[in-house]
Amino acid sequence: DPSEAEGLFRLLDPDETGQIDVEDFIMGCLRLHGAAKAIDLTTLMCEVRWLRRRWHEHAYFIEQEIAGLQGYYPPISMSP
To answer: Mean pLDDT throughout 43-67?
Structure first.
């Protein structure tokens, strides 16, 4: 199944460079060695890595948006 081959490639390419060097291949195979649970854990690790990267991108975007808004509004005073 081509989708399984693509998924396996993504698991073996942790840096998402589109290439798998010898070290990535060997380390990926060692991680996947064992029961189906190893593949599930490796898949989960890849998904968490992707979500973490997206979260950081989103946080940076929000910080930039907030920084851009600071000049438009006067500071809020907390004293009565």
So the answer is: 90
Which DSSP symbol is given to 20?
Answer: -
pLDDT band of residue 54 (cuts 50, 70, 90) is very high
Kindly report the number of other CB atoms within 10 A of residue 11's CB atom. Answer: 19
For 11-33, what is each residue's pLDDT tens digit?
788 778 888 888 888 888 887 77
Alpha carbons 79 and 36: distance in angstroms, whole number: 60
The tokens describing 32, both together, are 């996947």
Sign of the dihedral through C-alpha 49, 38, 20, 26: positive
Cβ(46)–Cβ(10) below 8 Å: yes
